[in-house]
Amino acid sequence: MTILNINKYHFVKGGAERFYFELAKLLEKKGHQVVPFAMRHAENEKSKHAQYFVSEVVTDNTEARFITSHPWQALRTVSRYFWSFEAARKLKKLIKQEKPKVAILHSIYHQISPSILPVLKQNKIPIVLVAHDYGLLSPNYSMLVRGQVYDKICGSNFLRCVKDKCVKNSFAASLVSSLEMWFHHSVLNVYQKNIDYILCPSKFMENMFLRAGWNKEKIIHLPYFIKKQGYKSTKAIKDEKDYILYFGRISVEKGIDTLINAVRELPGVKLRIAGTGPEEKKYKAQIMGNKLQNIKMVGYKSGEELHTLVKNAKFIIVPSIWYENYPLSILEAYSFGVPALVSNMGGLPEMIPGDNKHFMFKAGRTKELGEKLQYLYDNDEIIKRAGKKAKEFIKQNNNPEKYYQALLNILRKISYKHE
């Protein structure tokens, strides 16, 4: 079967892209031809289909430029948020060339736009979309505004976001994003009309789509899969042992402020923070300024280096203050038998095996997090048992073969419908 795999980025920018590539590998391993469709970008992985990719859309400060001075480039970019004729045109050419049977979509808003959905339908190509974030439900895809959850807009009343400045705390960005959502959903209804199924990695995400008024027949709960980790070495990092680990994006929604404030009161607990992001300099300055010698930021890690860092941690921490969906970082840790201490946000509670109160805390509660950290840090036997449960969890819920069979059944079902 020839399958279109569509995402705005064709390089690993975050969890959505990691899964986009892993899914392609899984499908190719099963004998399918996977055809990517994405945006051109300097960091893109090589692809023989790159000639069909849409031109780059640079979104940084575009809305502000559009509102204040109306330069041509900003106007062109904003118009593509609403409808990309280029994406529709190039996808038609790709379809004519490759003749795909189904399309799997990931993140397409802004850079690609839903202009491709009618093209797929006109060519009788069924559409499945994997919901990695809340981009189809709110102008603010993270539903976090000024450090607080902002879920009052969920599938309706998009223009309220303008008054609340729910995107980047900016009137301009909120206006453009809100009008985009209103046009796509309230005027054209282009998503619900054309997408056959939404695959939700977490039950929480599934419930958010239902809350937004989506047809429950189109919403399917299907957790991400994690492949067996393979690497050359698992030796401990030099001079490092007995540390706890945060790894991922260094940004406000991840709750790293709470984590650092909790660990600063625990001088005997060693914390390592791996990753990069917009708040990296701020946290480095905070750690240095307060002389927190038990906390180290080790920068961006990947491949074997990241695997080694994860495998040798006592446990990982996911202290998010936004509605996390179903983080691949937790599954990756679980594959090594490393448990996770998480906040009670979004789909995170679903990822804690059994009823284990020791591995969850209320988001933003510094004192509670500190107590949980110290308790777990001092109880290796509890961590060891939790690690075994973690491995069993992904065996039961995140097996690649189970995912493939479930996805194949869905694709066959919708392919039959479109014949």
Strand coverage percent: 5-15%
What is the subunit arrangement here?
single chain
Report, as a whole number of angstroms, the end-to-end distance: 15 Å
Mean pLDDT across all amino acids: 91
In words, what does this structure look like?
It is a single chain. The chain has helices at residues 15-29, 62-68, 72-82, 85-98, 116-122, 160-164, 171-187, 190-194, 203-211, 256-263, 280-289, 303-311, 328-335, 366-377, 380-397, 400-418, and strands at 2-6, 33-37, 102-105, 127-130, 144-145, 148-149, 197-200, 219-221, 243-247, 270-274, 295-299, 316-318, 340-343, 360-361. With 419 residues, it is of the alpha/beta class. The protein folds into two domains: 2-139 and 185-225 and 399-418, Glycogen Phosphorylase B (Rossmann fold, 3-Layer(aba) Sandwich); 243-397, Rossmann fold. A six-stranded parallel β-sheet has the order 2-1-3-4-7-8, with helices on both faces. A three-stranded parallel β-sheet has the order 9-10-11, covered by helices on one side. A three-stranded parallel β-sheet has the order 12-13-14. Helix 2 (62-68) packs across helix 7 and helix 13 (328-335) packs across helix 15. The two termini are 15 Å apart. The model has no long low-confidence stretch (mean pLDDT 91).
